Fold:
Amino acid sequence: MTTVKGFTFAARSAGIRKSGRLDLGLIFSAKPARCAGVFTTNKVQAAPILVTAPRFSGGLCQAVLVNSGNANACTGEPGLRDAEHCSRLLADSLGIDETLVAVSSTGVIGQPLPMPLLVEAIPKLSEGLSGDGVSDVATAIMTTDSYSKISSREGSAGQKPYTVLGVAKGAGMIHPNMATMLAFVMTDACVEREFLQQALRRAVAGSFNIITVDRDTSTNDMVLVLANGEAQNPEIVANTPAGQEFAALLQEVLLDLAKMIVRDGEGATKLVHVQVRGAADAADARQVAYSVATSNLVKTAFFGEDANWGRIIAAVGYSGAQVDPSRIDILFDDVPVVQGGLGTGPEREAEATAVLKQAEFAVNINLGLGEAQAEYYTSDLTYEYIKINADYRT
Amino acid sequence: MTTVKGFTFAARSAGIRKSGRLDLGLIFSAKPARCAGVFTTNKVQAAPILVTAPRFSGGLCQAVLVNSGNANACTGEPGLRDAEHCSRLLADSLGIDETLVAVSSTGVIGQPLPMPLLVEAIPKLSEGLSGDGVSDVATAIMTTDSYSKISSREGSAGQKPYTVLGVAKGAGMIHPNMATMLAFVMTDACVEREFLQQALRRAVAGSFNIITVDRDTSTNDMVLVLANGEAQNPEIVANTPAGQEFAALLQEVLLDLAKMIVRDGEGATKLVHVQVRGAADAADARQVAYSVATSNLVKTAFFGEDANWGRIIAAVGYSGAQVDPSRIDILFDDVPVVQGGLGTGPEREAEATAVLKQAEFAVNINLGLGEAQAEYYTSDLTYEYIKINADYRT
Structure:
């Protein structure tokens, strides 16, 4: 079990979820940690977002309280008061300032938090704090996830080793250009605060913002990173080798978690890496990758293990990007199925079908126009997606 | 069976589809008709689009040749030559100029047209021409459609009665801001040519461009209208009562067909009318309607008959439109489930669930900010959609 100096973890079953599963988690740093956050861009924001985002602008956080089973979204003023009440209960039990608490919720929208359950459970949370309890927290934040998601990396700065440990939840409502789900990253590295926020933004851009399961985005998404400096390293700052290493490790952890989320996409059976090259500019590259990665018809063909490149080239064509059909090449892994806009014939398609039978593969698209490139990770669209989402809540 | 003066119809089984179904159709006007067209905005355009669109700028058309089973898309120069060859064969058999022929195809992308079959079938098509054969043409153009789509209206100009008769195909790859599928409209009215094009553009904006089944758009979509003037009415022009009547009837026919397409959406069991009011401006209203109507999570909740307004308000929030959560009202038909951004409670939700059990219902969203409104028609997202699209082609 990965541990991070100065961080302890706890989880309980507060009874928010009727199943009796773990549904309440706590991440605690022995001393206030420098922090950075990325929050949902949805204009309908849940109470925990409204409470936590302003606190993060202060730059310090010592505890993260998170529940599943109830999103505390669309709950108005009473919902805000509930979120603040939870954070105060936790601060009191830990003996820290309330403004050092981040609150986070995920689950059903529009229902008040079951405050009697939380009033009872929150003060008891700290009893269970332990350095190796991160997997319980990862479990407590799951909703439709079929497994918990943890990733870590080791780095060093000034010969002092440090750890970057991340947990995430998410399987549906995953969509780019958002914080996209819940993820919490703990590190004992000492990191300059502005650089921490900058590194987080870049890491999210190269991980959670290039995955898509469906195109919906939540009212509650947040990615938080806490850096408590317990590694005693010289402060990591921008534009240095140590800064580059930290930023790379942070992005690796987030990309690990992001890919786990796509693999665990609601009902997903495949992880597909959509890579676009040869675009006229970066915006075009992104548009094409996005268009292909989010097409229901393309995603359903992946599920059907059908090398239906016609749907892919149609998605390229309606992406809005500059396109010359006669220059488009498409490959499944390294099997070319389209060259210069034309199919390569039934033999190649048979080879491509074998590629699609794998659990993970790449769709490589070369537009043949320029140098820009972009990538996305997506899943297939399956019966199970419908089942999960038609039945959720009931 | 609706007939239109001066128009005859024929259909055959050319053997393009292995099932032996009707797969080749002909619409013929006794004399050249004024014509207008709207074509796919996909940058990857099929050969029939590339052949027909320039001909339509000439303003006259006498025959429409359409096949299902093969889209003649992504077929390069040979595909263009095939489309032209088909149009020449038809022109010869009808004794008309080749430039008066529109060609149209729908089906699988990337396969050459089976020319030997078409060379044999096309010259025989005209033998079957009949004034009441429109339903055979409507059947011949079906692909994953589960029923054929025909609508008509009667109007008059200068006391001369005329008919507007439309046929369409489409059940998947239906998406707004495109011609979206195949539709052919025949009228015996005499209509000024520029006005005909203008009326068609507006009618498409108020019908095919406000429906969505999935978000994919095809390389082959076209909507054509042919007006042969056989009703002997005084020419219908813009900014007159007769012009308004004609434009309204044309839009009614297209909206009828558009709704049939949504009802027949691949796997769809529900037709849902998304109505947005109170937006700050028209673009915002459209964005919100679009965002809700295209959300996979919302569409899956419709299938589950789950009054899950949380997903709707989340889709409103991420639409990009100006939104004040505390002013949002949401109703299923006339049952309020959200007032001022807050849920109205379990009793109302139970009433709303009854609304969702209907085959057709409305989602009414009031943003409470301004006067602008917009609407969309959408379907639910079901197991059957996955089945149809994972298995199509195999």
About this structure: The longest strand of chain B covers residues 24-39.
